[in-house]
Amino acid sequence: MDFSELTAMTTIRPPSGPSFPDKMINPIFPPSSNPTINGLPPPIFPPNSGTSSAQFNQPAFPPTSMNQYNPSPTPPLQSSNTYNTTVNPILPPQQQYQTTLMNQYNPSPTPLSQSSNTYNTAVNPILPPQQQYQPTLMNQYNPSPTPLSQPSNTAVNPILPSLQQYQPTSMNQYNPSPTPPLQSSNTAVNPTPPSQQYKPPLMNQYNPSPTPPIQSSNAAVSPTPPPQQYQPTSMNQYNPSPIPPIQSSNTYNTTTNPTPPPQQYQSTLMNQYNPSTAPSIQSSNAAVNPTPPPQQQYQPTLMNQYNPSPTPLSQSSNSAVSPTPPPQQYQPTLMNQYNPNPTLPVQPSNTYNTRVNPTPPPLPSTNHYNPPPNYQPTTTAQSPSPHIRPMYPSPSSAYRAQLQQPQNIPQMTNQNSQPPPTNPFPQYGANSNIPQNTTPLSTYPGQPPMPYTTSSNTSGNTNQKLNNINGSFANNTNNIIDLLKEKSVVSPFAEEPPISPLLTEETQQMNCSPEVMRCSLNVIPQTKDLLNKSRLPLGILIHPFKDLDSLNVVQGTKIVRCDGCKSYINPFVTFVNNTQWRCSICFRTNELPQEFLFDPTTKTYGDPSRRAEVRFGTVEYAATSDYMARPPPPAMYLFLLDVSHNAIQTGYLQSFCDILFENLSSLPGDARTQIGFITYDSRIHFYDLSDRQNGTFRIMVAPDLENIENKLDEFLPVPDGLMVTLNDCRAIVETFLNELPKVYQNNSETDSALGTALLIAGKLLHQTGGRVTVMQTRIPNINPGSLNSQIAKEPTVITPTSDFYKKLSLDYASQQIACDLFLLNSHYIDLTTLSCVSKYSGGEVKYYPGFHSVHTPDEVERFENDLRRYLQRKIGFEAVMRLRTPPALSIQAFYGNGFVRSVDLLVLPNINPDAAFGMQVAIEDSLAQYKSVTLQIALLYTSSKGERRIRVHSLSLPVSAAIKDIYAYADQEAMFALIAKMAADRSTTSSIQEAREAMCNVACDIIKATMSNTSSNRTVSLYVPYAIRSLPLYMLSMIKSTAFRAASGAKMDDRAYYIDLCKTLPTQYLMQIFYPDLYPIHTIEDTSQIVRDGDDELYIPARVQLSFQHIDSHGAYILDASEYIYVFIGKAISDHFVQNVFNLQTFSALPFDSYTLPAMDNSLSIKIHNFLTYLIQSRSHGVAVHIMREDSPNRYLFTRYLVDDRSESTMSYVEFLRYIREQIGK
Amino acid sequence: MSFTFVAFAYLAALILTALLIFFAIWHIIAFDELKNDHKNPIEQCKSLNPLIIPEYGTHIFINILFLLGGEWLTLFFNMPLIAYHINKFRTRSIMSGLGIYDPTSIMNAHTLNSAQREGWIKLGFYMITFFYYLYGMIAELIRD
To answer: What range(s) does the Gelsolin-like domain occupy (chain A) (predicted)?
Structure first.
């Protein structure tokens, strides 16, 4: 059935009332606004219209569907029956009716209310803020605490038969009343008017409560912070609030960046893990500044003090002196998207103050980083680690502290002591006067001296052949490491992502951030043969829509592009003169528009190199109408909710409704933003949320029709009202969200008609595109789209069992609809097949195995945080992404969720900041004429505000003919991520077994290739370049991972999920999935890096390799696997530790598994809490924390990650190295 | 000289192979269009997939004629292609239609190149067999 043909046939939104198109003459669900067109009464059931329901039977549904719908005398929706009773003609007059309505909202002794209460209490120990928040909601919601509903229930029951009267109409209308009682319930829900609570500028939002006592309660040593703090700060970031969260400045001066990234999720997560261990600080904070701007939480100036750079950079010194960031540099020119508010003084912040005080005390500016005398990086002495920094500075949400590099740099890292470059901003392509043969310009600490200079392309005297740099590494033989001798290849602290050797740290901004785009080889091989000889994979990893600290938005001027290859002007182009520029990708000489010479900063004409487009690797253009295929549609959000019995049992619906309710204001969008809901079990439930219902919503139930694909155009119950403008119908949406969990609390339908719901969703959004969010808890089992819930045997190939979802996904993609899946299943759900619907429509899949609101509190926490992030994060619609490369390079394959429309073009109906992509690149022709290669990613999208934007990332890398350079500048993490993507692809096309073998071969081949290039080819050693030293370890960990391991015990869904993650996860998280970080925390006070920020110190333990060799039963460990954090308590742990951290006497008193750390007021507990909080905050997605004893039955969750050790069927790391050695020797 | 069944088989094969040559050229053009970004892969797959069964069927039909005619050598020449076709159809990705091209994976450079190469090889094969059938037909006709 061709879905797209149907879409042309119908009109979803007829103009208005009386002029309905023909097909609306006998609609299934006549619109209530047009009651007379077909002689029907309005489908609202007024309280006294017993006859109207009988009348309504007739034309509503064809008899067949009627039969289908009402096969049993029992009402299908019990809970909706209770609602229907309120509209029953037998109801008492209006006054009484109001009370019944209220009673129903009460926490009556009905099962669901009970369960929701228990749910709350069960969750409470873990989520203190939730606890606080929930009761307020509930209290507002339940005006009377006494359960009045017993009488009301008895009143309800006798009315039930009357309900049968209009059941055959196949509509359960939830229409409590057309009269204002719902109004009152609305106001009951929101004690504060929505306009105040939800649309204040940011400051108010942070403290939305009109009642100041909350602050005082906060000060009054309340262990749980007030709900206001529960509002995540990141809301601000995605908010159309006039005050930006970010004081933006130069993004890519990471080491000198005076402005740290915004803190996301800060309050949320911190509260959970550290509910005020120091109440006194909190109170003082509350007293200092009750409404602080959250974006000022991190002290930028402090970071400069950590800056170990010997070159006093002008920027850093500026910011050190003045608390305001130096926006003068380019601010007038480039409108910062986040529009930093220059009036806000940058306040120092207490970064690790997990007490979530939005106003940290002002930091004395004399606070310097004083390495404490006991600070000894434990393992750095033996393990060479370039440019140490704290873990996880990568996400923009994370606190990015700059650690001072330890003084005892291993000699291997070859710390460069060259004087700083005299030119603080050497323009690539400008005439640089620095002699070529003197000190290298690029002094990247931890790397060998860089032979490349930022030499000019134009100046004739700098004809240095970058290609011929053979032998330049002759003195750097010490960057080769013997893997068989040096066992510890994982640096104890995270490494800086590599930068292009073309650039210095100062000119890094000319390339986009390595977190946005990085190449597996930072020096491109000159020929295909060279690439094949090196055996390294070549590809780029892109995180194109990543939340950036600052973004240069170019507005209003002509977008300058190359006429030949259509690439955008970038920092690596050459200006022939003031009227011409030469493209860095295809070398075509183009005309330069006159307006490009205008420098908005100085308001002068002349030098084109001052423009932001040629200064920054990441630029965003405001696109003109040339870039639009149609006027930008509004942001459309449609939620598809599973309300089958199984779904209700998991209890997710309450969480979902609560979180969406909180975040309605944070949904990105403008005044046109529309929202809609469809729920489904074996039938489809529609909700008319338009305001023509006098402030309530209406439920319409359609049975799951057979052959729905043929009837879609007549299936939508009402032409509008299913998607409503959020601004106009806000109150109704809120009412709806409050009611929804109760409506289905007793639903006994167990089937799931997901396929039908998805088809209808596509139908609803086909004109505008948008986002479909699916919450699914079981395998869909009703056609279309039903899946077989039996797995015959352990399949060898991860391949879908049906192409229904893939075709649907392609239809979605052509209609600019993306589908995001939240899978909360406890049984097999066939994730492989289901995820197809997201895979080709640019959506994402989130997976919460075994989700249950009571039994798996850690998954609940992860789900809720993910959902918050999901609702608040930025979104781009109608996106396409194109990679432009020199003609000598070609793209072999795309990895990631999107539809490959052309050889270099990816169609992304939605783009979200958490989506990453990979592209495998091949060298077709020789690059001999290239000194450097420029790669450019352009992402064209419609912002949620309806603006068309182009985000351009450029990356320039040198070309070399020397294989040593290729190895020396290989990026092992990027290579690993690329190999993971290729392996994931392999496991879906051929088999998992083959994927494993391929990984093994990759490790062997690479090492073999490197060995042949090193002179010392002794049989007892395994010399590899330092830059790829961890590759064998990573390969081994991937072979043993959930995704690829041989053991048949792995659940199919888990395997499929992790294989999908390989393709969609940003590199840093992918690394953690496969090779998690293991930190000993019992020694946190002794062997840690210390990041000091104000009065607070963050202790970051040195990470160790994943081996039992490093696990001591006297110790406690944190294992960070990105989505899960396991805290492992050894059974011989000291009582002192248990007492201090867990507030229990001995180890035996500990529960086997727990999910929260108690907050204790001692230094050890605070340090561990701070560190854990820091880990949790450093990522944008939610984390499940699981604390287990060594003898816990779940200890395998932890031990399975110890991939360095051998298991029954797999090799240990040392064995693997020996195996490689043997393979090479053959 | 008589018009035997074998001669008829060769004659039929001759005509049908001309058809197959057109199919092969159509494939090559289609993939070239894909490569040069002229066509949407979804539409291109929609137009290519219905041709798969006719092509394979035609080729197998020709060989059935040869089988009936006892032309073992000719059959032997064609066996590899038949095996290739059957294997390719058997191992196609899961789809409800009868085609073998999946718009989600076809833009993969490897898939695209191999499909194009396959088109060229098939074109060459059909051309050779075309003349071979011509020869076979004439030889059969002038035998005796």
So the answer is: 1101-1164
- Return the HEC string of A887-918: CCEEEEEEECCCEEEECCEEEEEEECCCCCEE
CATH number at residue A735: 3.40.50.410
CA neighbor of A948 nearest in space, from A516, A550, A631: A631
Residue A1207 and residue A267: Cα distance in Å, rounded?
41
Count of domains observed in chain A? 3
Q: What pLDDT does residue A258 have? A: 36
pLDDT for res A1048: 65
Smallest CA-to-CA distance from A197 within A227, A234, A222, A217 is with A227
Q: Which of A843, A874, A905 is the last residue of a domain?
A: A874
- Name the 3-class secondary structure at A327: helix
The one-letter code for the residue type at A1134 is S
For the domain that residue A909 is a member of, what is the CATH number? 2.60.40.1670
In a domain, A85, yes or no: no
Domain that holds residue A1168: 1069-1225
Phi, psi at residue A80, to the nearest 5°? -70, -25
Using one digit for the tens of pLDDT, what is the confidence trace for A612-653?
888 888 999 998 888 888 888 899 999 999 999 989 989 999
A785, A658: one domain: yes
Residues A793 and A882 in one domain: no
Report chain B residues whose CB lies below 8 A from the CB of A900.
41, 104, 107-108
Residues of A in contact with B96 (CB under 8 A): 802-804, 807
Which residue among B35, B103, B109 sits closest to A892, beta carbon to beta carbon?
Answer: B109
Considering only CB atoms, A806 lies closest to which of B40, B104, B107, namely: B104
Count of domains for chain B: 1
* Tokens, residue A303: 């970071």
Task: Find chain B residues with C-beta within 8 A of A989's C-beta.
Answer: 105
Considering the domain architecture, whether residues A668 and A562 belong to the same structural domain is answered as: no
Q: Are residues A944 and A849 in the same domain?
A: no
Q: What is the reported pLDDT for A578?
A: 80
Interchain contact B42–A (C-beta under 8 A): yes
A624 and A648 assigned to the same domain: no
B90 in contact with A, Cβ within 8 Å = no
Parent domain of B128? 5-142
* The last residue of a domain, from among A839, A874, A909: A874
A661 domain residue, yes or no? yes
Q: ∠ CA(A952), CA(A955), CA(A959), 5° rounding? A: 150
From the list A799, A814, A900, the residue facing B94 with the nearest CB is: A799
> Is residue B28 within 8 Å of B116, Cβ to Cβ?
yes
CB contact under 8 A, A890 and B35: no
Q: Chain B interface, mutation test: which of A787, A989, A991, most B Cβ atoms within 10 Å?
A: A989
**Which amino acid makes up residue A450?**
M
In a domain, A955, yes or no: yes
Same domain, A794 and A866: yes
> Are residue A883 and residue A798 in the same domain, yes or no?
no
Query: Is residue A994 within 8 Å of A983, Cβ to Cβ?
Result: no
- At A812-830, the pLDDT tens digits run 999 999 999 999 988 888 8
What is the CATH classification number for the domain harbouring A1193?
Answer: 3.40.20.10
Please state, as a whole number, how many other Cβ atoms lie within 10 Å of the Cβ of residue A664: 18
**How does pLDDT run across A1101-1149, given as a tens digit for each residue?**
888 888 888 888 888 999 999 899 999 998 888 888 888 888 888 888 8
Judge whether A466 and A456 are in contact, CB under 8 Å: no
Residues of B in contact with A922 (CB under 8 A): 109
Do A1108 and A1174 reside in the same domain of the chain?
yes
Show which residues on chain A lie within 8 Å of chain B, measured between beta carbons.
799-804, 806-807, 810, 814, 839-840, 890-894, 899-903, 905, 922, 989
ipTM of the complex: 0.90
DSSP element (H, E) containing A399 = none
Percent of chain A with pLDDT over 70: 57
